[in-house]
Every structure is written in C-alpha cells, then in structure tokens.
Design goal:
The protein has helices at residues 2-5, 14-28, 31-40, 46-68, 80-92, 94-114, 117-123, 126-148, 167-184, 190-204, 233-236, 241-266, 278-295, 306-311, 317-329, 334-339, 342-356, 368-384, 387-404, 413-427, and strands at residues 74-76, 151-154, 158-161, 300-302. The protein is mainly alpha-helical. The strands form two sheets. A two-stranded antiparallel ribbon has the order 1-4. A two-stranded antiparallel ribbon has the order 2-3. A hairpin with a 3-residue loop joins strand 2 (151-154) and strand 3. Helix 8 packs antiparallel against helix 17 (342-356), helix 8 (126-148) packs antiparallel against helix 19 and helix 12 crosses helix 19 (387-404). It is globular and about 70 Å long.
Length: 430
C-alpha cells in the first residue's frame, strides 16, 4: 500500500485516506439517484442508467486514484446531464446524444494527450468561463423548479408559479428546505441525506406506498442491456457542431477548474499555480466520458465534492479507490433508487444550481466589455433552454464588445474563429 500510494511521503496514513474516501463519497453519492431520474426523462431506462452511472463513477474514480495518485472522484456531471436529456436527447434522441458524448470524450482525450488544452484555456477569457458555470447553474436550477412543479407553463407569460399546495410541489419544497438547512449547518452529505429524508416524507404524506420489505430497498443490480452500447454514432454526426463543442467545452473547463480548485486545497499546485500531472488527470476524465457513453450514461467529469475528502486529510489515490469501491456498493440499492420520486431529486438540482452560481463573483461587472457577454451567456442558457446557445452567444458578444471598444488585442485569435463558428451555428445550422 505504501509503495503504491506513497502515503508517508504525502503525510497521510491508511485510516485518514479511508475516512477521506468515505467523506467524498457521502457528498457526491446523490448523483446515483439524480442522474437516472434526469436521463429517464429522455426515455432511457432508469435501472440501466443507474447501473451505468455507478459503474462509470466507480471505475473512473479508481482509475484516477491508481493512474495519478490524486484523491479526485468522478461521476456523471450535473448540468451536462440536463443538457443531454432536455436539449440534445429531446431533439435527436438519447442514442444520438450518447454518440455525441462519445465523440466529445474522444476529442477531449486528443486534446489532453496533445497538450492542446493549455492553448484553448489561454484563448477563452476567464469571464466567459465563469459565466458558463453560472449559466449552467441557473439552467439546472430552472429544470429543478420545473420538475418540482414549483414553476409551470403558462400561455400568457410562458411560465408562472405552480400550485404550491399540491402534493408534488409541497414535497419538493420540504426537501429543498431540508437540504438548505443541512447545507447551512455544513453537514457532510447534505444533498444525499436530504434526498433520502424527502423520500421518507413522501411515504408519510401518502405520496407513494411504504416499502413492504428489504426487497424494496436492496436487490441485484439492474441490467444495463437497455442502454449498453446503444449509442448511435451516425445520428450523432448529424448533430450541429456547436452542440458537440458544448459537451467538450463544458467538460474541459469544468474539469480544469475543479482540478485546480481541489489541487490548491490539497497543496498540489506549484509556484506558477499549475497542477503537476494535470494531463494525466484530464486523460482519466476523457476516458471516463467516452467509457460512460458506451455504458449508457452522460458525460463523466471530476467532482468539486472531492474537496470534502481532501479537507478530511485525503492526499493520495487511496482516497479515490475507497470512494470508487463505495460506489460499487450502490449497485445493490437499485430498488431503493426506484422509490426516490422526481420531487425528491428536484431540490438537489436547485441546490447545485446555487453552488454553481458562485462563479458570478469572478466576473468583472465594472467592465462592460466583460460584463455584457458574460450576462448574455448566463441568461440565454435557461431562457433558450440550451447550454450550447448560451456559449455561442457569449463567444460572439465578447469579441464584438472588445472590437467596438478598441480592445481588439485582448481577444485571442482562436476566439474570433469560435465567434464565426457560433454565427454559423445560429444562421446556417448544419
């Protein structure tokens, strides 16, 4: 164990690493219930997606620990799973959406291996990166409010407040309050605990019948047959370029930001603020995305919740291995996952949206050439119901604002290219 993970060199021990792994798992295990709930709305089999989600998370997290010796954990990413289900799958079918995820994973892998990610990172301004994260936060929070029945369609104004006294919205509001209180009190695993408590309350409210035995909670893993290797690459190739680009863009920068943020917390960054072995970590993320699409789940990405384990002292890949092994135990909770109503997972979307909105603070709103493109990126995502359209608008607005204000030199040449591609995406879609 010492030889493999270099525990003494990292100033840690087996006990600390195990506790850290459990902590990380507790903070991100909610994805096992939330991801199937979201993807099943796109027509995918709930049980198959749950199994795929668990296996993808478990294998990729263990791979991260063994390949990089970093305490980072991975699973299907929030935001991109909503984009997958409610935008891409809704328009082109979930099989094509899985194909698009595979393509994005392969592209990500090429970028990571070649080192091209560093050049792309330099080309995209920080304000747009932050705006994309905040916009995705608003987008998934909006979806959460819709799934909860708190926000409903209305002919005159497009949307309006739903009937909060109805059982569904009321259950979601109770769940939202529970999670918010747990988060405010800094309880580890607040989202997971909130989902499970809300599910119990759904039984008490008569929203659904009580489980009749252990067989309703524990059981054999659901078959992946309905989603395994069911991706449609031919259909995926017909999806507009900017949709595929959005999968790659969000995955790359979300992963980069997470790696740097968690790396800083763990004390890994060098004097220049760079993370050693960052390409290795990015490769693991890319492989996880491609592999997850074959299993039947949306984009796999590194989780910021890894910071929870790092805060408990996790410093090596053993933390990741422990987290990955715990994910595999979730395979035998398939019946329990089936009992979790959408109204219990909707609050998780809203809370994750709140957390992602923190990126807004990194935008310089005193500079209109930075603020305007960022604002458009953020607001377009939920209103157009598309991450791709939000990114495209931001990529057009940023160079235009800099050009008209005499700051053209602040724009990387690659961003001009992406602006042209974005224009094509809107006016001559292919």
């Amino acid at each position: 164990m010492e030889k493999l993970f270099k525990l003494k060199e990292s100033g840690t021990n087996i006990k600390t690493e195990i506790i850290a792994g459990i902590t990380t798992f507790m903070t991100m295990a909610y994805i096992v219930f939330v991801n199937p709930s979201i993807l099943s709305m796109a027509g995918m089999d709930f049980g198959a997606v749950m199994t795929a989600t668990v296996i993808a998370a478990g294998v990729t997290t263990i791979f991260m620990g063994l390949f990089t010796n970093y305490p980072f954990a991975l699973a299907s990413g929030m935001g991109l799973n909503a984009f997958f289900a409610f935008v891409v799958a809704a328009q082109y079918g979930w099989q094509a959406a899985l194909g698009a995820v595979l393509i994005s994973g392969v592209v990500f892998f090429i970028l990571a291996v070649s080192g091209a990610i560093a050049h792309i990172d330099a080309a995209v301004p920080r304000s747009l990166k932050s705006a994309v994260a905040a916009g995705i936060g608003l987008f998934i929070a909006f979806i959460g409010l819709q799934n909860a029945g708190v926000i409903v369609g209305y002919e005159a104004t497009q949307v309006t407040l739903g009937d909060l006294t109805a059982p569904g919205p009321l259950l979601s509001l109770i769940g939202l309050l529970l999670i918010a209180v747990l988060m405010a009190r800094k309880v580890r695993g607040a989202i997971l605990i909130g989902i499970l408590l809300t599910t119990v309350i759904s039984f008490i409210m008569g929203f659904q019948p009580w489980p009749t035995g252990l067989g309703d909670i524990f059981g054999a893993p659901a078959s992946m047959a309905p989603t395994f290797m069911q991706l449609d690459l031919r259909a995926a190739l017909a999806i507009p370029f900017f949709v595929i680009f959005s999968f790659v863009f969000v995955d790359v920068f979300d992963t980069m930001g997470t790696l740097l943020g968690t790396g800083e917390r763990a004390g890994y960054l060098d004097k220049e603020g760079r993370l050693p072995k960052v390409n290795k970590a990015m490769i693991v993320d890319a492989v996880g995305t491609a592999g997850g699409s074959l299993l039947g789940t949306s984009t796999v990405t590194t989780y910021i919740e890894s910071t929870a384990g790092i805060s408990e002292g996790g410093r090596t890949g053993l933390t990741s291995v422990v987290t990955g092994l715990l994910f595999f135990l979730m395979l035998f909770l398939a019946p329990l996952a089936g009992l979790v109503p959408a109204e219990a997972t909707a609050p998780a979307l809203i809370v994750v949206g709140v957390l992602m909105m923190a990126s807004v603070m990194k935008i310089d709103f005193s500079d209109f050439t930075e603020a305007f493109p960022a604002f458009l990126t953020i607001i377009i995502m939920p209103l157009a119901y598309s991450i791709a359209d939000g990114i495209a608008v931001g990529f057009i607005a940023f160079p235009v604002m800099k050009l008209v204000s005499g700051k053209a030199k602040e724009v990387h040449w690659l961003l001009y290219v992406l602006a042209v591609v974005a224009l094509v995406h809107f006016f001559w879609p292919v």
